[in-house]
C-alpha cells in the first residue's frame, strides 16, 4: 500500500477538474490519498471531487481548508455550519476525517485555522484576504477562538488508533510553523504570514510522535526535515501557478 498526498486542488477551475478526471482508475486502487484541504468552496464541487477520488483510491483522508469553509455561495448561517456540511459530504462519499490505521502505520488528520502566532495582520491583509468576507463565525469567535475550536478536536497521543503504531503521519491544511516558508519569499509576499497557520499544530504534531507531516495552504511546495520531522507540501494550486506548483500526486510512504 502506497500513501500519496496533494492539497489545494481548487476544483472551481476547469483545468484542475480535468486533471483530476484523467487520473488512472486502476493505478491507485490499493493506495491511500491524503487530501490536505482547499478542494472547493462549493459543496457540489467538493462532492464531485470526493466521488472522483474515491473511485480511484482505496481510502481518501481529508481535512478542510479555509476555502472549503467559505459560505458566500452556499446560503449557510456560518462557517461552523459549513464545516458540518463539509463533514457530512465527506461521510456520504466514504472520505475519512478521522485517524486511519493500517498495520503499524497511523495517519492522523489535524484540523486548524490561524491565530496570528506567525504575526499580526496589517490593514492591507485585512482588506485583501477573502476569508474575512467569505467566512462568518458566531458572535464571540475571533480567529484565535476559531483556531482553538478546531485544534481542541484533534486526536491526542492516547487515541486508540495510535496504540502500537511505529509510524505516525499527520496532516493539516494550515502550516504548523512559519519557518516552513523558505527564505527566498520576497518581503511583499510575507504580509500573508499571519493567516498561514498556528504553532498549536506543531505542538500537537510533536505530542503525537509524528515523523512526517503533510500540509497545504501556502502554495509553496516543499520537502524539508526540521527537528526530526519531515514536512511535505504538495499544493496543486491555481492554473496560473502551473509553472511552479507540482501539478501531480506525490508518493510519500509505502507500507511494506
TrEMBL record:
The cross-references to Gene3D superfamilies, in alphabetical order and at most eight, read: 3.60.21.10
Query: Which residue intervals define the domain Calcineurin-like phosphoesterase in the entry?
Result: 1-220
Entry's SUPFAM superfamilies? Metallo-dependent phosphatases
Q: A Pfam family for this UniProt protein? A: Metallophos
**What is the protein name stated in its UniProt record?**
Metallophosphoesterase
Lineage of the native species? Answer: Bacteria, Pseudomonadati, Pseudomonadota, Gammaproteobacteria, Lysobacterales
Amino acid at each position: 500500500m502506497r500513501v500519496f498526498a496533494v492539497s489545494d486542488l481548487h476544483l472551481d477551475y476547469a483545468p484542475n477538474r480535468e486533471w483530476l478526471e484523467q487520473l488512472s482508475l486502476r493505478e491507485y486502487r490499493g493506495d491511500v490519498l491524503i487530501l490536505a484541504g482547499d478542494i472547493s468552496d462549493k459543496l457540489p464541487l467538493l462532492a464531485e471531487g470526493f466521488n472522483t477520488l474515491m473511485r480511484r483510491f482505496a481510502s481518501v483522508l481529508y481535512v478542510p481548508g479555509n476555502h472549503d469553509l467559505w459560505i458566500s455561495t452556499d446560503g449557510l448561517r456560518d462557517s461552523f455550519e459549513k464545516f458540518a456540511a463539509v463533514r457530512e459530504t465527506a461521510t456520504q462519499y466514504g472520505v475519512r476525517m478521522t485517524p486511519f490505521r493500517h498495520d503499524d502505520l497511523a495517519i492522523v488528520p489535524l484540523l486548524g485555522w490561524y491565530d496570528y502566532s506567525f504575526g499580526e495582520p496589517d490593514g492591507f491583509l485585512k482588506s485583501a484576504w477573502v476569508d474575512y468576507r467569505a467566512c462568518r463565525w458566531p458572535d464571540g469567535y475571533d480567529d484565535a477562538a476559531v483556531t482553538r475550536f478546531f485544534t481542541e478536536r484533534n486526536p491526542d497521543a492516547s487515541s486508540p488508533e495510535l496504540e502500537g503504531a511505529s509510524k505516525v503521519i499527520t496532516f493539516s491544511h494550515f502550516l504548523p510553523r512559519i519557518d516552513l516558508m523558505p527564505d527566498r519569499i520576497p518581503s511583499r509576499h510575507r504580509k500573508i504570514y499571519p493567516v498561514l497557520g498556528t504553532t498549536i499544530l506543531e505542538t500537537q504534531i510533536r505530542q503525537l510522535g509524528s515523523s512526517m507531516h503533510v500540509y497545504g495552504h501556502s502554495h509553496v511546495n516543499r520537502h524539508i526535515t526540521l527537528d526530526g520531522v519531515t514536512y511535505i507540501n504538495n499544493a496543486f494550486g491555481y492554473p496560473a501557478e502551473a509553472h511552479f506548483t507540482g501539478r501531480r500526486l506525490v508518493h510519500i510512504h509505502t507500507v511494506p
